[in-house]
Amino acid sequence: MRSPDDPALFFRLHVFICTNRRPDDNKRGSCAGRGSEVLREHLKDATKSMGLGDIRINSAGCLDRCGHGPVMVIYPEGVWYSFHTIADIDEILDTHIVKGGRVARLMVDQD
Asked: 3-state SS of the chain: helix, strand, coil percent to 5?
């Protein structure tokens, strides 16, 4: 929980998208092997074209949620999503990033 003494947030939202790549035969798989790099670029381009300068989209190494991949986590809320298509990314962008809601069907339980 943020304290009133904490400095102001530099970004309103900070999105970390796993772009970790493992060998194709790795039993855990990898988010990059499931298309996360292209989907991350789409989200980054979309936020930029919408003028959302208070949102940061970052690549991340393994976020250790491989079974749900590809995955992202949005801070400061700490909401995790699994996504597979541009339509999923667009729904997260509109519902969570722009409107502050949640896309329940794509949320990953904290396991």
From this structure: 30, 20, 50
> What CATH number does the domain containing 36 carry?
3.40.30.10
Report d(CA 68, CA 28) in Å as an integer: 10
SS3 75: strand
In-domain check, residue 26: yes
**Beta carbons within 10 angstroms of residue 93's beta carbon:** 21
Encoding tokens for residue 60?
């991340």
**54-98 pLDDT tens trace:** 999 999 999 999 889 899 999 999 999 999 999 999 999 999 999
Q: Is residue 55 part of a domain?
A: yes
As for how many domains the chain has, the answer is 1
Residues 30 and 22: their CA atoms lie apart, in Å, by: 6
**Taking the complete model, does pTM exceed 0.90, yes or no?**
yes
Token pair 């904490």 in the structure block, residue = 6
